[in-house]
Specification:
Number of helices: 22
Order of helices and strands: HHHHHHHHHHHHHHHHHHHHHH
Mean pLDDT: 91
Distance between the termini: 38 Å
Strand content: under 5%
Largest sheet: none
Structural class: mainly alpha
Helix content: over 70%
């Protein structure tokens, strides 16, 4: 009986069906549990903007990037303004993310690393928790996983079809969150190195073509006086480059989520005035204020970057219920140290794994300039788990040499 079960799991199709089925069931169970509740205030704002687009009232301002808004608008056009529909699609996106991560790990590392990756993602608590909300994290996690998989696939087979689809997905991911774009610039350089000038250059061209319509929309929306490729970073940079931004990073740990009163202390005193300005004027004002603070406070900024790095890569939330901290320590608290080992191992095969190393470096560096929460790290947790799986694969290889099939890097 045990032999038959082992043989069944050795069949790749059945293995994937088992773990992807588990991933979907866990996410659906959480959707059923939360129902139409459990929606964050920020999620409500995303949904209201999307509903405005779906009903023909327009996008409005340009502070938020458009990717997730238009995705939600498409959902609402089909299902109405339904929280349940968003959550059910989140369950499918989360399951698809596990599949994409499996194929990426198989391309870059080994089949066993891919299996471990898919298995760990299937029951990862952060991914399941965000399935039950309407925030952008589940969608962004899927888009980033899809873009990285397509980049890896194009490196091994740089056909025109792969190049075009990869560039389009990179552009759509950048339109979902502009902080991913610095990594994608590195990814184009990586493709140039791995697959030649045509692949790297043309993926970049398709990326720009995908972003261009939104850039043109912004240009004409502001009477041809303002160029903004995706969304302005200056508003966010000002909120993250002031004395108020330093204050929450120096707080001690709390065993309860932060209150609105506590969060309010981290907001610049003129934030209401700033928010009331037309976007071009707001952008100019925030740019001047942010750069002035950075120039006048280099020591505070260095401290802020250090604190943010620690915050971004914490093993568990700084402000959360105790049970949430314990659950995080039982998963990400183990995966992140293993990920560090996996990244160290990846240096030995730098030609193939430098794509993931560049992702960690670029994604972390960009976020150090802005307000940091563990929520913003969640899309990266796919690759945290992948590198942890690489470390576990290496440990298994030492125990049972010769069992894993290594990918050609």
């Amino acid at each position: 009986m045990i032999k038959k079960i082992t043989e069944w799991f050795d069949i790749e199709k059945n293995f994937l069906l088992a773990w992807l089925g588990l991933a979907l069931l866990l996410r659906l169970a959480f959707v059923i549990k939360t129902g139409s509740g459990g929606i964050s205030p920020d999620a409500g704002d995303w949904m209201n903007t999307a509903w405005s687009v779906a009903t023909g009232q327009g996008f409005g301002g340009s502070w938020r990037p458009p990717g997730y808004v238009f995705y939600l608008a498409g959902v609402f056009l089909v299902f109405g303004k339904s929280v349940i529909a968003v959550k059910l699609l989140n369950a499918l996106l989360g399951t698809a993310t596990a599949l994409l991560a499996y194929h990426t790990a198989k391309l870059l590392f080994s089949q066993r690393t891919a299996r471990i990756t898919a298995a760990l993602i299937s029951f990862y608590p952060y991914f399941i928790a965000y399935t039950g909300d309407a925030l952008s994290e589940t969608f962004l996690t899927f888009m980033l996983a899809a873009a990285v998989y397509l980049i890896a696939r194009t490196a091994s087979k740089p056909s025109w079809g792969n190049i075009a689809v990869t560039g389009i997905f990179i552009g759509l991911t950048g339109l979902t969150k502009s902080t991913t774009l610095p990594f994608f610039m590195l990814a184009c350089a990586w493709l140039w190195w791995r697959a030649g000038l045509r692949a790297g250059f043309m993926v970049g061209v398709f990326t720009l073509l995908t972003i261009a319509p939104w850039t043109l929309r912004n240009y004409f929306h502001y009477d041809k006086s303002y160029i903004m490729p995706v969304s302005t970073p200056w508003y966010s940079l000002y909120g993250a480059s002031c004395d108020e931004a330093l204050w929450p990073e120096t707080l001690p740990e709390l065993d309860t989520p932060p209150t609105d009163e506590l969060n309010a202390l981290a907001i610049p005193k003129d934030w209401g005035y700033v928010a009331s300005l037309p976007l071009p004027e707001r952008d100019k004002y925030c740019k001047e204020k942010a750069l002035a603070w950075l120039k006048a406070n280099p020591e505070k900024f260095r401290l802020l970057v250090y604190k943010r790095f620690l915050h971004f890569w914490r093993l568990y939330p700084m402000m959360a219920w105790r049970w949430q901290k314990h659950l995080a320590m039982a998963t990400s608290g183990i995966y992140i140290p293993l990920c560090v080992i996996g990244l160290a191992l990846a240096w030995r095969k730098f030609r193939g794994t430098s794509l993931i190393i560049a992702l960690f470096a670029a994604y972390t560096a960009v976020h150090l300039f802005f307000v940091v929460t563990l929520r913003y790290r969640v899309p990266m947790d796919t690759f945290v788990i992948m590198m942890a799986a690489l470390a576990l694969d290496e440990a298994l290889s030492r125990l049972k040499p010769g069992r894993a099939e290594r990918a050609p890097l």
